[in-house]
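Risk register update: the risk that structure generation would not scale has been downgraded. Supporting records follow, first protein first.
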Amino acid sequence: MYRLAQISVNIIDQCVAQGVPFAREYGGLLANRSFGGAQVSRTFYARGQTGQQLLLGAYQALEKEIAKGGVSMFPRSEMLDLIVVNGRARGIVVRDEVSGTIEPHLADAVVLATGGYGNVFYLSTNAKGCNATAIWRAHKRGAAFANPCYTQIHPTCIPVAGEYQSKLTLMSESLRNDGRVWVPKRREDVGKKPGDIPESDRDYYLERKYPSYGNLSPRDIASRAAKEACDDGRGVGPGGRGVYLDFADAIKRLGEDEIRERYGNLFEMYQRITDENPYAVPMRIYPAVHYTMGGLWVDYNLMSTIPGLHVAGEANFSDHGANRLGASALMQGLADGYFVLPYTIGDYLATARPEPLAPDASEVKAAVADVAARTARLLGVKGRRSVASFHRELGRIMWEHCGMARDAAGLTQALELIPSLREEFWQDVSIPGSGEELNQTLEHAGRVADFLELGELMCRDALHREESCGGHFRTEHQTPDGEALRNDEEFTYVAAWEYAGEGQPAILNKEPLVFENVKLAQRSYK
């Protein structure tokens, strides 16, 4: 974290040079604003689409390097295995998603920057193509997987609209700067229009419970508070799974033009999705899976337990601990890619001095054969049940038993349900078509097969961690007023899980967390 803070200012300069249009004050200086978990305005932003603009800036810089010939890009290729030779990462095996060709790419070092595993829950704010296959296959080749149970639930998402919805939409956390979160105080008012509920009958529960931070309480706290209100029968919208995010006071105070200037693109997106005008009626929001703090274990040089395999951004576990605060996800990825890996990979290559590797080496051929065999096994099931139905059922299990709130009974049940579902998957999954063509069902099946294994590890990690900490909230471990209760005496460590083989329980390795300059203390946002 110290290094990340040191180089974070360089990220802003780098991105500005790449064309990212950060917001600026009238005099030309960079503007900033508050985000969840902070009482001061310290977050640089690009209106309500900071993440998208950062991605566009990075993409443009990459495309420039591709055009110059400095980078070779292989589009529509999916990594399906890691090549390990003499204990070191020496390349990857990919499948061409158009032709189905399976081939190796050899290298002196490998970098995985493949994002997180939030889609194990089926419904998340992640793009549908996001998956855990790259890091999971690396894990099965020997890379330790750290803290898989730590999942961030974002409180500001558009609620689920129906049973067969396949993705959730994130509304920027910046909305909570001016929007006020509330639900009716009385259950009998839930069916009323929000404008018909008088101010005295509204429960602005974040302002009530956390007066110091109010609507800008951290994401995990705001998410659990929304769940508590809905579980109490006071949720709004279809199924009672929503709370109001109301801008009436801000519009009255600042004027509609100012709110339109700040959040116009977000309001337009919300109206297009819900057909409701957020300038006239409150938005409806509900928590959704957004980010995963766990990932492959890495050292200070971002190298995993497999020498030569480096892991960047959300794919590793390193910077965010148990609870990522707002505005920091892309900061980590950009810091790793632009300011850390260029130095640490050079150090690895200088000290390891990899030997030349032939494409027909036995380890390379074995890795390619493993991928081909797994692909053939998937295609050979020829069952009757769709891949999406398995994914949806896994997501329900994960959300109910390893979501915002967990307990031993639910996690134990999940550890019975997931292996059973995995067994059914390998006996009855339906994958039409062949492996020698564009086959998106085959791609999805491979990813769901990995999610079915990863989900079990997440539940196992959550069950063993007998405390509440950040994004991991065990209902048995909370303070009398419902806040997270840590157990620093027994669980001040990174849980780095080691793959033990097919059908064998993962092996837990503990990396102690030693705090020399910061004293551990219980969080309070009251």
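Supporting record for the second protein:
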Amino acid sequence: MAIPVQFQQFKSAGIYRVVYDRSTVLGTEAELLRLVVGYSPKGPFNTPVYVKSVSDFRAMFGGISKALEKRGCFFHRTCIHALEAGPILALNLKPFDTEEVGCAAISGDGIDTTDPKLVTEIYDTSRFWTLEPEKLNDNQSYFHITATDSKETSTSIIVRKPADSKVAAYNVSVADWYNAYNLVVPDFLEGYESRMMKDFFTEVYVFKGQFTEDVIKAGALNNYFEITEGTPGTDGKAAYYTDAEGAIYEGDVTEVEGESYKSSDVTEGVVNEGAQPLVYHPEVPAVPATPASIAVKKTIKNAFGKDMDALDALYNDNASGALAHYVGTLIPELVDPNVGYISIDVLMNEDSDITNLMASLDDDMLYTDAGVADAKVMFENFAATNVDNLAPVYLEGFTYLSAKPEDATLAKKVEWQNKILDVINEYEGLRNGLLSQAEIDYRYIVDSFETYPTTGVELKSQLSYLAKSKELCFAILNYPSVRAMVAMGIASNGVFDVEEAVKALVLPSESNGASFCAFYTPLKFSDGYVDTIVPSAGLVSNLFMGKYNGRFAYSIVAGPNYGNISYQQLVGPDYHYSQEELHVIEPYGVNCMIYRPTFGTFINANQTAKQTPKSALSSINVRELVIYLQSEIGKILQSYQWEFNNPVTRNAIKTKADIICAQAKANGGIQQFLNVMDESNNTPDIIDNEMCVLSTHIEPGRGMGKMIHELTIYRTGGMSAVLKGA
């Protein structure tokens, strides 16, 4: 018997999953993380960042931005909402076309910015984007990084590898340095014991605003730098003679009584009659041009010098401050090459902002009264007093505002949003990293963008397709607001038309992951003065996380008990769908938020985007059940990989699979199941090709979404027969 066609694609060893959906209707898990996808002008980009608290998120990406929310980007608010249910992976997507960073070589000849580099040239983009340190420290020149659309409130960072003279004291190996002080090499230097200490040093300058020659000349940075205007040079001239008519004479010259004559005008020492003396023009030396120059007027001193106690203090939880955010000698771990920020947990409280700090940076806070740079002065001014409140500061200089809509038109917003989301598919390294289970694992994808009602285009298919490609993943997506749909013309006489909405808007197809995603309508918030329509995916994701605390992975997230949304300043749904409208939009594949007195605001449906043809995978809990079974049984198969394919091994695997399915059945997730792993599906051909097959058949549990109460009214005495038959 030949290998079944569906198994012939498997060429290498591994655990493979095949799902057969035969439910079409005619007519304990790994660490749970959510990948929140969005856009932020500040913070690490094109790399997932593990965030465990709101304070850490604010330090990395900033707070809620009304300006971004007007463009449909609710990344900050969504992450803050989601963090209430546990840690998240924040993915800040940024597309780059021709955006550059400036390379500033500072020397006596001024600032040379003639060699800019593309952003993509200084990052390793083979997987998650990481800044490549060698691109910053490959010579003695400064490397200048600034925002591509720098404003006065932006920050410029200049990084350079220090000259050997500045780190001469560290020209010893790491091991020898610590041995000299009878110290153990700290953890952050393990593996580098044979390297020279000087190799780990970097100078970092941070300035508010753009760092350009024009800005310095304008006085914005004249406390630190002084520019001298250049002067043009002149060519020199050798000495020469001219005759009485002013013509240059280049022949032989004879001196007579202190005058110079042409030698042909002198006979035996006597000047011929009528001869005129020559005019001597002395040599004119060349005057070199004076180049424009830039000089550092003041330099913040090295905070550490030879005092290793001070350097080690940077890694001490009780450290009171550091110069890491300005100029100093820094171990590379302080300037994290993976995300481009200085990650030392000192200097600033979580509510501080680097641009505000730079705005207040003045000589009194950096120098002694005598004008001498002194690290202690900065320590006293900026040290955090309570180490419990310390947080990393993500420098704005590593921020690239690479894409934003030119205006507030819907078309521009849609174009901008799609350009950002397309990063997932267009940057192959990033996509491969997101799909690699070895590099990153997440259970849910959370959409943070407002969805705009674009006709003829599958909504948010970039995220649904990512979930499908990841396999053991589900995408929680935002459906357009009624306000946006009316603005788009999905209305009759200015009134929302739900029939037109389901005709005009297209949800992802099955090939793009329809059964791996669900759409939820927005919510309305109010601060008492202004109402704000907010995408609901962040708060919905909290409900999905909540079911793992006391319920099950395949439990239904809907209804007033387990789909209830409550949050400060929440008013309710963005639109109160009538029952007739719900009859239209929910079978189309949308989970509407509804409000009912006593019960509040809750999710009214349990629908994936797969509604045609309708099957068990049209229900979210069934897709969640499939993911759960594939994950748990996949672990069993992995634990037996490369064991012998014989009845003993197969029975052991089947027994464990039966236990998992039986538990799901006992908890209501499955109605019936059957696991088969014997000679019927492990044929000689299967065994000879070093395969094994476990076939799991299930009837999934179903929820009670449509609650029907039948009430029959009888005339007097009419129920006698009914009561007798009861």
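The two ends are 58 Å apart (CA to CA). On this basis the risk owner (M.S.) recommends closing the item.
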